[in-house]
Design brief:
Blueprint: E1 3-5, E2 11-13, E3 16-18, H1 25-37, E4 42-46, H2 52-61, E5 70-75, H3 82-96, E6 101-106, H4 113-125, E7 129-133
Helix pairs in contact: 1-2, 3-4
Amino acid sequence: MDAIELNHHVQMPLLGMGVFQVTDYGLCKRSILTALNIGYRLIDTAACYEKEGAEGEAVKECGISRKEVFLTFKMKIQDAGYDKTMRSFEKTLKNLQRDYLNLYLIHMPYRDCYGSWRAMEELYQAGKIKTIGV
C-alpha cells in the first residue's frame, strides 16, 4: 500500500477506514475487520465517535501484527489542556487495548490547544505516540 511520510519519519498509509458515522458497535467492529482483511492498514477515529472499544477489539482480533496497523486518533475539544489531554489519552489507550498510537491529533484547535500540544509532545517523548499533529 502506498504511504506518505509524516513528521518523525513515520509512514502513514494513504488509504484508510474512518468510522465517523458508524453508530452500531457490532457494525463498527465488523467494518474494521473487513477493511483490515481486504488490505486497509489505516484506521481513523476520534474520541467523540465513541467507538474505541469496537476498534480495539477489531485490531486485536484481525490477526495482523499491530506494527502493520496504523491508528490515527483525534482528541475531543472538551479534552483540551494539558491535564485533560493526559487523562483522555490514557483512557483512549485503555479503551483501544493498545500501548501506543501511531498518530494523535488535536481534532479542532480550540480552548487550551497549547496545553494539549505540550502533553502530546511528552507522550511522544515517552514513546506512546509515534507522531502528533492538528
